[in-house]
Amino acid sequence: MPDLIQVQNLVKYFPVAAGNVHAVDDVSFSIKEGETLGLVGESGCGKSTTGRLLIRLIETTSGRILYRGKDIASIDKKAIHSMRKEMQIIFQDPFSSLDPRKSIGETIGKPLEIFGIGSKSEREEMVDALMEKVGLSPRLFYKYPHELDGGRRQRVGIARALSLSPNFIVCDEPVSALDVSIQAQILNLLQELQDTMKLTYLFVSHDLSVVKHISNRIAVMYLGKIVESSPSLELFRNTLHPYSQALLAAVPIPKLNRKRERFILSGGVPSPINPPSGCRFHTRCPWKMDICPVEEPPLEDRGGGHFVACHKVK
Amino acid sequence: MKTPLLEVSDLNVVYKTYEGTVAAVNGIDFSLSPGETLGLVGESGAGKTTTALSIMGLIPSPPGIIRSGRINFSGRDLLSLPEKEMKKIRGNRVSMIFQDPMTSLNPVVTVGVQISEALVAHQHLSEAQAEKKAMEMLEKVQIPGQRFKEYPHEFSGGMRQRVVIAMALACNPALIIADEPTTALDVTIQAQVLELMRNLKEEFSTAMIMITHDLGVVGEVCDHVAVMYAGKIVETGTLEQIFGNSLHPYTTGLFRCIPDIEEETSRINPIEGLMPDPLDLPGGCPFHPRCPKCMDVCRTTVPAVLDENGHRVMCHLYGTGGGTHA
């Protein structure tokens, strides 16, 4: 499959009083058509910013974002508008991402209206079909977001994202706000929709088990950098970067008698305003060597598309 | 059998709202021995936090009403104690750790003073003594004692939660109730805080009720588990009993809908449907509308609790009602 998205040297700095927040700092990756790339990391690592940059909800500081070979990081406002038909986003919080004063039907039909697709009655039919597709009963058409529970609200967000039949959807922590039993329902729905509609996902999440479940490939971010990326299974079987290892070891697993190596990182994530020199992980790394604070390790392929940025891993 | 430290029996709590009466906790029984850690698991609206607040005597009233029940703590029924007596217990013998360390700390008071407060109030230490003890407590949670004079905003999320833990432990309570203490934290920080809680629990031999929606967290720190659904405890037992041989279809469903990080799965098996409306709970077994093994009797009759070696389950599949008995 060809690459749908290619991201080259993407940078996003947010200016603040104390300097620049290095939210995303020279990140490159690609997503093939029909695949799911999982972007995983802790708060403040730049994963959501990356997702938002990809569909240009925010402007890049520098770098290129190629969609089917065309650079969309530099196109004008008008061109962005038509691009939105092909790229959509599902947000984390199913409450704040829905207009409380619009009915469910209006919310889902709004993108169709903006793009002038069909007559009013045709649009209503399309919305009905979309609601059915995401498992919402048509009787909810005239309901308002506050009358729905979190799981149903998230289904509304998904239906809205699907309304223009996009190719690419950024899923920004779409199940984090949901209870586990509902989370599983939504994950299955996203997978079914991907199969039937040939969708490509960027799946942003802090939850490694969820990311592993849904992704073909995974990229691990730390302080604005990708430290490791690999096919999903390979990443779990052969975790190379010490940060990825720590992240994996930190996930509590609901099983008995697990003889797990305790690999607990000390300290917290340093400030993204003044990120550490060299390898950004060196301040917490258990394998730190002399070179680490001096030179930034490149993200290199260690075979089979398993990339890692670490001086120690050779 | 040790004498239980805490014994909750037939606790019923409702909230009176304009829309009707919310049945939050519907007749739960459980007990806790000294030094034991009980994981109270369930999804939002299961009644976990209401249970905790009942023990602490912190149910907001109105709208909350404790309809019935006994909460026996060290031989005294907390529900019949006057507020003046309850104040002597709260923060001293029983303390609580809340989910969000930003809102549970006072932003305009230094962390040292916040930790000292309980020591001055309950143990009648002088301010200087309390200050010294507070610094010790900070060191216990791996925060340098000299940061005593700093304000909550000067600490990271994980450190703030450690300050809250230091406050909760300050008077060396017999019981700590931790309500989703690591839910707001990143996984690597969660791992640090859980490790710390495990160590301190042993050092202080404190009993703990760990409220969480995360079965993984339960597996890390608890030795007993109670699974709540719609205000009832549907299954309870030791960690081995619940994790090794879960009986209730809701418990089994909860385990199955977590994507397995160690195995390959193509689809997960969600629990169909939604949590019932607490204003209008279904008759019979509260789980029956979502249960894959629902029988006719489930719709009409509340199942009795079957107890086998301390593994208790509330389901018609087990016990005298027939069905398969594993």
Care to describe what's here?
- The complex is a heterodimer of chains A (314) and B (326).
- Chain A has nine helices and twelve strands.
- Chain A has helices at 47-54, 77-83, 104-114, 120-133, 150-162, 180-197, 208-214, 232-237, 242-250; strands at residues 3-16, 19-32, 36-40, 62-67, 70-71, 87-90, 168-172, 200-205, 217-222, 225-231, 300-301, 307-308.
- In chain A, the strands form two sheets. In chain A, strands 6-7-8-3-9-10-12-11 form an eight-stranded mixed β-sheet, with helices on both faces. In chain A, strands 2-1-4-5 form a four-stranded antiparallel β-sheet.
- In chain A, helix 3 (104-114) runs parallel beside helix 5 (150-162) and helix 4 crosses helix 5.
- Helix content of chain A is 30%, strand content 23%.
- Chain A is an alpha/beta fold and 314 residues long.
- In chain A, strand 9 (217-222) and strand 10 (225-231) form a beta hairpin.
- Chain B has 326 residues and is an alpha/beta fold.
- Helices cover 31% and strands 24% of the residues of chain B.
- Chain B has ten helices and twelve strands.
- In chain B, the strands form two sheets. Chain B has an eight-stranded mixed β-sheet, sandwiched between helices.
- In chain B, strand 1 (6-17) and strand 2 (20-32) form a beta hairpin.
- The two termini of chain B are 26 Å apart.
- The model of chain B is unreliable at 322-326 (pLDDT under 50).
- Classes of the chains: A alpha/beta (314), B alpha/beta (326).
- The interface between A and B is large, with 42 and 45 residues.
